[in-house]
Amino acid sequence: MSNALGRDLAKLVAAVDAAATECGHGAYGQRFHIMPPAGWLNDPNGLCQAGGVFHAYFQYAPFDVEGGVKAWGHATSRDLMNWEYVGAPLLPDEPFDCHGVYSGSALAEDGRIRVLYTGNVKLSDADGTYDYVNTGRRADTVYVESVDGLAGREFSQKRVVLASEDYPEDLTCHVRDPKVWRDDNGRYHMVLGARRRVDGPHVDSRFCAMHGEGAGRDVGEILVYGSADMLSWELESRVSTPERFGFMWECPGYLELEADGGVPARFLSFSPQGLEGDRWDRGNVYAAGYMPVTGNITGGKDAYELGEFRLWDAGFDFYAPQEFTAEDGRHILIGWMGMPDEPTYGNAPTVACGWQHCMTVPRELTAGAGGVVLQQPAREIERHYASVRVGAGSLEVAGDACFDVVVDGVDGAFTATVDGELKLAFVPAEGELPSRFEMRFTDEGRASAGCGRTVRWEPVDEVRNVRIVGDVSSVEVFVNDGALVFSTRIYPEAYGVTVDALGANVTYHALNI
Ligand code: FRU
Questions:
Q1: Is residue 262 over pLDDT 80?
Q2: Is the pLDDT of residue 261 over 80?
Q3: Mean pLDDT, to the nearest integer, of 254-265?
Q4: 12-48 per-position pLDDT tens digit
Q5: Residue 55 above 90 pLDDT?
Q6: 427 with 503: CB under 8 angstroms?
Q7: 85, 128, 193, 438: least surrounded by Cβ within 10 Å?
Q8: What pLDDT shows up at residue 1?
Q9: Is 43 one of the catalytic residues?
Q10: How far apart are CA 315 and CA 289, in angstroms?
Q11: Mean pLDDT of 487-494
Q12: What are the extents of the domains in the chain?
């Protein structure tokens, strides 16, 4: 269902998409990572599988490569590797979403795709009094469902199911990104990311300039709602950490992984903004990670305990991931391989071609020991293994833009170079610095392969195995069965991988996708 504005927007987006398809994505177009046809892509939305088909909707600003008013783009796949863009079914055409069909999620059930998203509105500021944190912004939760069955390309009339006034009063206007699931009893739950207002003096935060003074005192949290029908919602719980952990939590998720002994391992996923101090100042401007949950977040404030926060990905380009359960029961995570508000590095080579950003490779999740989630590229990647090279302790292969390198039996030493420009290494402890795994661009200039990216590292006691997955303009590195992951965009002039790891087995697969 649409209105006159929606119909015109649809024509404009289709024209931009068609023109972009003619031009292609240029030398750095990805082969197996979801890209926008044109313009800007951010968060994955509405991830689900129905009738064998995977659906990945995404935040899409087709008219401006640097972002703009968001619609939902839509890509589908049968194997998580070959993705086809099929249109932009949700456009900002209603008063309650006119400044963006913001992030949300989907459930495929009863032969249709049911969606919840945030309608973003920044009210016009006639008197110049809005700060857009505590005033001037709306973020209604909106429901739509597909009217073309499981195709998911056309949606019903939009319906506001929670208006901004319905959220707890002590929140700022920043509430968004509903992630919905159905529990074993058939009851629906959704989590929403939020920024709670705290009055009083603020601490001097590097985030105040961009996010207002409240960035130095507001508190990130998650609202948990419950419903019998996905339409009428009641607040079940509010989840936050005992100590303030950033001022805003975006894109929450709640996942249950099978664990030993049949007790599910539960995790709260979110993208916190405003983390400061050494640990965070050397990393990305915003983080995305998870905390193990003891108990259950749907049961009120005494029903759960949160464990240690871990980054989903410690590389340069990763934010706002979303997880879903595939029809075969696998838990799959897809993240945005980009970083918002990033001043020091960019993606000039694709921006010059009129597009920016892509998703990560879909990653299978399993529960590891000690509250760690392990990530591995979806196994479908193996169907695209074209040729194999093996090496004992070292290997050098040049020429493939797409590859999957598995290094097993690492014992102490590990270094690898990707495309001559990106170094991966296990670095022993020195001085104040712990032993760590490092991803480092050798040339840090903005015109280099890293476009200004420098170094990222995480402490790790030992490295047992490393897997390096390359697409034309991205590298994703899975360390120790995927307990630690690093992702980055890269714009190399020539392709090639060198691995040195005394005693290890190196297996290099060129990918044909
Ligand atoms: C995260 C985010 C979400 C929001 C969307 C808007 O990157 O800021 O919180 O819904 O992007 O595009």
A1: no
A2: no
A3: 88
A4: 999 999 999 888 999 999 999 999 999 999 999 999 9
A5: yes
A6: no
A7: 128
A8: 61
A9: yes
A10: 12
A11: 97
A12: 4-52+64-376, 384-511
E strands present in 101-241:
101-109, 112-122, 137-145, 159-162, 171-182, 188-196, 219-227, 233-239
Distance CA 268, CA 282 (A): 24
Helix (H, G, I), strand (E, B) or coil at 210: helix
Average pLDDT over residues 338-357: 96
Helices (H) and strands (E) in the chain, counts: 4, 33
Closest C-alpha to ligand 1, atom 1: 320
Q: Which amino acid is at 384?
A: H
3-state secondary structure of 107: strand
Greater model confidence, 264 or 228: 228
Instruction: Choose which CATH entry (2.40.50.140, 2.60.120.560, 3.20.20.70, 2.40.40.10) describes domain 384-511.
Output: 2.60.120.560
Q: Which amino acid is at 414?
A: F
Name every protein residue with a CB atom under 6 angstroms from any ligand 1 atom. 42-43, 59, 70, 100, 102-103, 118, 176-177, 250-251, 319-320, 340
pLDDT at 453 over 90: yes
Secondary structure E strands in 200-346: 219-227, 233-239, 248-257, 265-273, 289-295, 304-306, 310-311, 319-325, 331-337
**pLDDT over threshold 90, residue 301:** no
User: Cα–Cα distance between 113 and 149 in angstroms, integer?
Assistant: 7
Dist. CA 415 → ligand 1 center (Å): 36
pLDDT at 302: 87
* C-alpha torsion 412→456→478→290, nearest 10: 120
pLDDT of residue 108: 98
DSSP per-residue string spanning 342-357: --S---HHHHTTTEE-
Q: Residue 467, class by beta-carbon neighbours within 10 Å (0-12 exposed, 13-18 middle, 19+ buried)?
A: buried
Which of 14, 49, 22 lies closest to 325, judged by CA?
49
Give the Cα separation of 232 and 225 in Å (integer).
10
pLDDT at 259: 86
Spatial separation of the C-alpha atoms in residues 15 and 39, rounded to whole Å: 13
Find, among 476, 465, 471, the residue nearest to 510 by Cα. Answer: 471
Instruction: Kindly give the distance from the C-alpha atom of residue 368 to the centroid of ligand 1, in angstroms, as a whole number.
Output: 29
* Nearest in space to 110 (alpha carbons), one of 2, 191, 229, 1: 229
CA pair distance 115, 48, nearest whole angstrom: 10
Query: Which pLDDT does position 477 carry in this prediction?
Result: 99
Ligand 1 probe mutation, 91, 102, 192, most atoms within 8 A of CB? 102
If we measure between CA atoms, which residue out of 151, 182, 334, 350 comes closest to residue 256?
A: 182
Q: How many CB atoms lie within 10 A of CB 10?
A: 17
Supply the CATH classification number for the domain 4-52+64-376.
Answer: 2.115.10.20
